[in-house]
Amino acid sequence: MEAIRREEVIVKDGQLRLTNLPYKRGDRVEIIILPQGRETEPRPRLTAGQLRRSGLIGLWQDRTDIEDSSAYARWLREQAQQRGETR
């Protein structure tokens, strides 16, 4: 699933207008609206150097219970995306 992140401002109560989306008539999309608090600051982004020094890269290298870390990370992402879904 490809996600598009857009930050918009509500200009009329209860209405949001999105334009220039890369979808065509009949395409199905899911919209999740997350209000942003005015007092919250954006999360800082890590540079490549900061990420390397963070300890996240290679975090699972010594784990004997994870044979394929890429497959495990993919499985974790899938689980996170399915949280809250009813089956």
Task: State the order of secondary-structure elements, H for helix, E for strand.
Answer: HH
Shape: extended
Distance between the termini: 19 Å
| Unreliable sequence segments | none
Task: Work out the helix count.
Answer: 2
**Main beta sheet, described?**
none
Query: What's the helical proportion of residues?
Result: 10-25%
* Structural class designation: mainly alpha
Q: In angstroms, what is the radius of gyration?
A: 19 Å
Mean pLDDT: 84
Q: Kindly estimate the percentage of residues that lie in beta strands according to DSSP.
A: under 5%
How many β-strand runs? 0
Descriptive tags:
87 residues, mainly alpha, 2 helices
Explain what the structure shows.
This protein is mainly α and 87 residues long. The chain has a domain at 48-82. The chain has helices spanning 48-53, 69-82. 0% of the residues are buried. The mean pLDDT is 84.
Summary, kept brief:
The protein is an all-alpha fold and 87 residues long. It is built from 2 helices and no strands. The two termini are 19 Å apart.
